[in-house]
Amino acid sequence: MSVSWLVPPRIASLVPSLTELVFALGLGERLVARTGYCVHPRDAVEGIAMVGGTKNVNLAKLRRLAPTHVVVNVDENRLETVEAMRTWGADAPEIVVTHPLGPADNPMLVGQFARVFAGVPGLEQRAAALSDALLRELDATRPDDRPERRVLYLIWHEPWMTVARDTYLSQMLARIGWHTLPAVEGGPNGAARYPKLDGSEPWLRDVEFVLLSSEPFAFDATHVEQAQRLCPMARVMPVDGELLSWYGPRAVAGLAYLRALADDNRTPWRS
Question: How would you class 215 by CB atoms within 10 Å of its CB: exposed for 0-12, middle for 13-18, buried for 19 or more?
Fold first, then answer.
């Protein structure tokens, strides 16, 4: 379907990975607002107005920037932010709500953007190329003969926080047979998707790998010993949180990174 834009879209992105997707699809010149966490592509975003964080959006500033479309995510952004924008009357933008639950949803995410912004020159071709690249990486990233692992993926410190099995991160790791603990699902949204730990959970003894993400909490070498005490029998590994948790174009490199992690750790781990 081709759409003739009488007024070019003005896009605001409240999600870092979606900001990167906007640029990957050739829509970067249409971006008028981003969050302070939207740092990729680094050179391209420098001149784009910032409107706060993913959870605390400066709605007054965002409204002054007059976006026609605001792209959001169920996990990253707050419902009250979306509801507030819908009360703007004639100024209310179209809200593009995304919620990829696993890496296999990435081609559908690209297709969603292609439909919303259909008619923008070159968009259809760029979307098709990105979808093809994602499908190739998805096909190459399967458990196959890789040993299954029990892993703890830590995203926060004080308190320790991890991911439920129905989150994008957990589903990403499952592509190589790495299953996150605890073995719980958090539901479609809310805090239960990111469980807190107090360190006394008996299943911590069963963890083989502790993965310390580089974001949203910036784990570093000082946290390795603490994580080791949390899971004494596990191997503690720093990992690139952007490559493992960002959907959209970064998932192409993320899936390759995931395979490298699995292939580097094929041999049984012994404490």
Answer: middle
